Amino acid sequence: MQSHRRAHARIAAGLFAGLGVQVGAWAVLIPELVASRDLTPAELGAALAVMAATSIGALAAAGPLADRIGRRPLAVAGAAGFAAAFALLAAVEAPLALWPTMALYGVASGCLDLAANAVGSDYERAHGVRAMVRLHAGFSAAAAVGALLAGAVGPDAYWIAAAVYVALAAATIVAPLPPHEEAEPFLGAPHETAVAAAHESSGADPAAARESSSRAGRLDVLRIPGVAVAVGLVTLCFFGDGAIEGYAALFLRDALGSGALLTGVALAAFHGASMAGRLVFSRATDDRKVLTIAGLLASAAMALVVAAGGPGLAAAGLLVVGFALAPIVPTALSIAGRSAPGRSATAVSVVTTVGYSAFVLGPPLVGLLASATSLRAALIPVVASTASIALLARYSGVTYAPDSPPSTRNVDALT
Q1: pTM, whole model, 2 decimals?
Q2: How many Cα atoms occupy the beta-carbon half-sphere of 406 within 13 Å?
Q3: Comparing C-alpha atoms, which of 394, 415, 238, 414 is closest to residue 343?
Q4: C-alpha 36 chain-centroid distance
């Protein structure tokens, strides 16, 4: 049993590490991609929009697919997709030819993201432990490694990354995964049976009725105040994260004259600071204070980045931004889950999907703004979004669903 637990922990950590490496490497390689293909900010924004659309689509489709066919096929598909995408990025020249490659990258991201988090959740349930915070900290550490590697070796990082993901795909094929269970439906079985029976008496398809009722139930969690607040917090945080990942390296190199190695070090420090922030703030118990401090600190640090006259000061600001943003998403997901006892998985799923949309759609919007003004001006909305987190924090007290019995109102850490 202990050997199985260690094996399950290794593959879960490996999937999160694989997810993190590409985040760090990709952020550093964006300026190289822009320079070698002579892309304008608008062309980069369009390519990122293609990646955004396919990533969101893959993430939405991967959830029910993982419950039907298991986590392994999605994990293998995600790792193999990244291997192919990085190899293609090393060879693609024309901006239009870049779009299919970015579509593949987006699909790979959605598949591996879902697989990693699902396997991490399965590990917690199978072994009765809380491990998601440590797994996400490992993600941040791997992102730092990926940024350092890409900054040190430059364009060769494409081929190194491709080899890494081939190895991850091969390891995932043979590695033992923790057992998983299908999620319980949002609505109780008696309710679904009654709905199906009512529709059957009117000649409607009972299966279609249950599916329609289930969809309505999933959206219904947005009526719970705590879930709605969590959606706002995650959306604001992920908008900033996406903008930093997509354009911070370009800002450091083009606007501030940083070299490739310093850019890699700066973004590695950003992810390292995220890991530190996630571990430090995990000891706090007052959500409102954590969110207020984190939002104000991130906003002030991002203002320093935007106003900086040199890469050193901007890199220092990014370090503080990474530290401050780190606890916001885990705290918001915890609020969502505690606000909807008995429906926490549905609440977390809705919050994650909406927030991830902001993460992947943010960079294209910043690209359009940069084309109309400047990259420095295009990053100002990140200052505003992080400051808004502190304002929204005042509403972050857990508010339960009106019909939840007191006995189910347990504080259950979800991250």
Answers
A1: 0.67
A2: 0
A3: 414
A4: 28
